[in-house]
Automatic annotation (TrEMBL):
Pfam families, per the entry: Sigma70_r2, Sigma70_r4_2
Any GO molecular function: sigma factor activity
InterPro entries: RNA_pol_sigma-70-like, RNA_pol_sigma-70_dom, RNA_pol_sigma70_r2, RNA_pol_sigma70_r4_t2, RNA_pol_sigma_r2, RNA_pol_sigma_r3/r4-like, WH-like_DNA-bd_sf
Keywords from the named record: DNA-binding, Sigma factor, Transcription, Transcription regulation
Gene Ontology biological process terms in this record: DNA-templated transcription initiation
Keyword check for DNA-binding: yes
Segments forming domain RNA polymerase sigma-70 region: 21-75
Assigned protein family: Belongs to the sigma-70 factor family. ECF subfamily.
Gene3D superfamilies: 1.10.1740.10, Winged helix-like DNA-binding domain superfamily/Winged helix DNA-binding domain
Protein name: Sigma-70 family RNA polymerase sigma factor
Residues annotated as transmembrane: none
Keyword DNA-binding: yes
Domain RNA polymerase sigma factor 70 region 4 type: 102-144
Amino acid sequence: MGEEGFALYVAEEFTAAAKRAAGRFDGWADGEDAVQEALIRAWLTTEQGTEIRSLPAWITTVAHNVGLDTIRSRRAEERALRRIGLPQNMIGGLDRLERLGEVADAIIELPRRQAEVLVLHYYGDLSVAEIGEHLGITPGTVKALCTAPVQSWRHRFGDLRQRGAGR
């Protein structure tokens, strides 16, 4: 399939595919993103010499899988935010990018080792023992590196909650 086949698909079927994906996931933006990602993957697949017999079926399948991955990532993100002590009403209350920006800023401010431990524990979903083994430190050190920033973040994010309520 060449450029013409992709152009034809985009012209004739993209909008319908994105609407179908949007219905399965979290709205138009997610559906459109999933189909766009599927199109990119299809293009790369054909560039590597693999034939795609039915582009619409291939796009539907890959877009579905991309959408499921997005949902899984968001759920993991929400679990991580709950585990670091973000108040429940903030997990869905702040704009997602604003919330992630605040968490990223808090991580960046930490010493490198502390940031590594927190990211592995809360976002990588690794156990204390797994982190210790991965970084070559004791489980007690892992726990110590997690405790102080999480307590600080609870205070910091509590302030954010009050700031958000005043908007």
